[in-house]
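re: ur msg from earlier - yeah i can do the NAP complex, just paste it... oh wait u already did. ok heres what im feeding in:
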Amino acid sequence: MPSSRTTILVPGRLHPRVAERLGDRFDLLTVANAVDITLSDEQLASVQGAAVTGSFPATLIEKLPNLKIIANFGVGYDGVDVKAAVVRGVVVSNTPDVLNDEVADTTIALLLNTVRQFHQAETYLREGRWVKDGPFALSPLSLRGRHVGFYGLGRIGMEIAKRLEPFKVKISYFTRSQRSDVDYGYYPSLKALAQAVDTLICIVPKTPETYKTVNAEILADLGADGVLINVGRGWTVDEEALIAALGEGVIAGAGLDVFQDEPQVPAGLLDFPNVSLLPHVASASVPTRNAMADLVADNLISWFDTGKAVTPVPETPQK
Ligand code: NAP
Ligand code: 8YV
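and the outut:
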């Protein structure tokens, strides 16, 4: 006999806590991924919600005639085809705010690691070289006296900037709309910001407008003392131009948590001593990922209880 419970589609991996939270009241229909779907028409018609980490393309949305809500695990929802969801009247939710502190903490760590080369220093110690070869070399760079520019100053950018204030660096930013609640210097373009600062922190979403905007010209504008930190999406940085800029000394260093084609990291980046690389871990602590999982579950529960998601994305507003 068909179940009377609502069916939630789970394409690919999902944080186990989401399944734990939903299992009591929903039927979870797990499939390997969002592309090779081999469900029957009856199964496809039963799906009313989805919980997703990563990709949810238009082709899948089209296959689900009764889909109401796509709950995305992550504040960035670039993997979900929101335009297709809007056309179908499907609500998309994400997980804003609950990860701001963790991502901001990680960004500060990545920045310090990049300028002071602590990752290299620890490897030096672990390899027994302190005993054998003496003190680790002085780091060519320091955070002292830096002018930090934010490309993006939203929920997470603001938390990073607040954390940077006690480090006594100068702070400026570029966003499309100037904020009225901060005293940081505003620049009306990424180019103008890059010309003014020596340290660029990217924390913008993956959108058509942000594609490879950090290119050879912007890197040259940062200058020979320049440091690039990217915790937004790999999409925003032209990785080939970055490798060339690092190789030619156009900038002094880079710290990256995100890459264009994850989990692939361009081989050219791996050999630079002045680059710190993390495998997209900015939000990856147990407490923060639990909070994100809870928000995914809360969005689905709220939608089916009240007809409203807790944190719908701006493109799919609720009445
Ligand atoms: P948010 O609150 O929406 O902030 C986005 C910021 O980017 C805003 O200041 C926005 O200002 C600016 N922006 C957007 N498009 C822009 C453009 N074309 N040019 C210039 N500025 C632009 O988002 P958030 O919660 O801070 O998250 C930001 C992004 O971080 C997410 O979308 C995600 O991709 C990434 N993220 C990465 C990790 C990680 O693990 N590494 C974790 C969480 C989030 P305007 O609208 O005024 O331009
Ligand atoms: C997660 C993120 O790593 O929230 C985001 O946008 O990039 C990260 O918090 C990702 O969403 C889940 O794997």
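cool cool. Residues 198 and 226 are 5 Å apart (CA to CA). ping me if u need the other ligands too
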